[in-house]
Design brief:
The longest helix is centred in the middle third of the chain and has 15 residues. This protein has a six-stranded mixed beta sheet with strand order 8-7-6-9-11-10, covered by helices on one side. The chain has a five-stranded parallel beta sheet with strand order 2-1-12-13-14, sandwiched between helices. The chain is built from eleven helices and 14 strands. It has about 280 residues and is of the alpha/beta class. Helix 2 packs parallel to helix 10 and helix 4 packs antiparallel against helix 6.
Length: about 280
């Protein structure tokens, strides 16, 4: 069996795409290089499935992809493969907690995105990112049943961090709460996290976890770093996130993804056995 990496799982925002949410020509060519080398490629994100649709065709993705930080697994046509949802009772409690910290709340259920105020700046930003509009509701009580992800958002990044800590303390193992961006707190089913993504894709694709590489930039990527044979942090990641990875590449505005693929997966990193240091 060929030594090295057989599957690369990439985070999307802050990693695969530029700050302008674009794929560069070098990124597309890097994924083509993985394909030529026989290395499978998948993506995982806090985005809903429809928010990753624009990446599937240019990257020629054929593997299952993980939306909602692992809350939903879909195939390349966005048909559901598996889903993990919060109970209606827990979802309602999460919403109250987020609001108590002064965060705006969004609810995702299936392929739908629900908001109460469509004119908030972050709603506009997210709409441009995922390339579809939310459904506006007066209240969330009718959409919490089956919710896959609940998001709290605020420009007060310290408040988001405090809310993350509070959510973990209050709900414990009943939810997974992690910041996907400094201004977003994602709350999902406790098994809906990027560590679970590594386990599930490893099993579905028949790739041992020590032959899986992961790349990302945020604290919610650390769980997948811990389980993969090769972990790569982006140059735009915080020092704390970078310390959890085995390798660090350049930032996402400096072709960090393409550089990582070239150096660590298709270059000398492709030939390094697990545990070796370049």
């Amino acid at each position: 069996m060929r030594p090295g990496i057989d599957l690369l799982i990439a985070d999307v925002d802050g990693t695969l795409v530029t700050p302008a949410k674009e794929l560069t020509a070098r990124t597309i060519e890097a994924v083509r290089g993985l394909e030529r080398a026989g290395v499978a490629f998948s993506i995982t994100s806090g985005r809903p499935p429809r928010g990753m649709k624009m990446l599937v065709e240019p990257l020629r993705i054929t593997t299952p992809i993980a939306a909602f930080n692992g809350g939903m697994l879909v195939d390349a046509d966005l048909a559901p493969v598996a889903s993990l949802s919060l109970s209606a009772e827990v979802a309602a409690q999460v919403i109250r907690l987020l609001e108590g910290h002064g965060l705006d709340v969004w609810v995702y259920r299936g392929s739908d995105w629900f908001v109460r105020d469509p004119d908030l700046p972050r709603v506009h930003h997210e709409r441009e990112t995922v390339q579809f509009a939310p459904t506006v509701v007066p209240a969330f009580d009718r959409v919490v049943d089956g919710a896959v992800k609940i998001v709290g958002t605020s420009e007060d990044h310290a408040a988001v961090a405090r809310c993350e800590a509070d959510a973990r303390a209050r709900f414990g193992d009943h939810v997974s709460a992690a910041r996907s961006q400094p201004y977003y707190l994602d709350v999902t089913h406790p098994d809906a996290n990027k560590g679970t993504v590594v386990r599930r894709l490893s099993k579905l694709l028949g790739v041992p976890m020590d032959r899986v590489a992961t790349i990302g930039d945020m604290p919610n990527d650390v769980l997948m770093f811990a389980l993969s044979g090769l972990s790569i942090a982006m140059g735009n990641a915080s020092p704390d996130v970078q310390r959890t990875a085995r390798r660090v590449t350049t930032a996402n505005d400096q072709e960090g993804f393409a550089n990582a693929v070239s150096r660590y997966i298709l270059g000398e990193g492709q030939r390094l056995p697990h545990g070796a240091v370049a």
